[in-house]
Amino acid sequence: MSDVRTRVDFKVGQQSNIDAEIVSFHGLKTDKEHVAVIFKNADKMQAVPLVRMHSECLTGDVFHSSRCDCGEQLEETINLMGESGGIILYLRQEGRGIGLYNKIDAYRLQSQGMNTYEANNHLGFDDDLRDFTEAAQMLNALGITQVRLVTNNPKKISELSEYGINIIEVVNTSAHIKDGNKNYLKAKVCHGNHLLTV
Ligand SMILES: [Zn+2]
Q1: 150-185, pLDDT tens digit by residue?
Q2: Catalytically active residues, by annotation
Q3: Cα 119 to ligand 1 centroid, rounded to whole Å
């Protein structure tokens, strides 16, 4: 059983004016320090909250790297939930679960022509090592059994359902195309079956 450890208010977004709460947990499956960010627009929050499972991407989220679309997806979600309420589960599984250093190694291979999946495979990893069990544990600890899931990724939809969360709607994020990430997004669509038009 997992439960909530600490909940504390903070303000988020580029103007730091969106009321939210950050939540830590006891008893998650691994010792990774996953957090939930709950957007407090409670008056507008529908009975079934918007939820996004966002896997940590230091290069994209913090440095707005041109190689992926993670930072833009996170910002889009913050803006959406700032308006409509919702929950971001920020999961500390960098590089689709291979870790930051391995991801940087994979970037070197991508610079030599491999796509994101080929590069991870070349390093000895499967396409996607992420595990969304803990996301379900976090939702359980928050008392949430039904969600409107913000994603383009069919793997997230099937896994979260498998772990007992009822997904009543899938809300797609936009295509954030930049000079440096076209091949990355194409690989996500062709190889990862992401619901995205590039
Ligand atoms: Zn990224």
Answers
A1: 999 999 999 999 999 999 999 998 878 888 788 777
A2: 128, 130
A3: 15
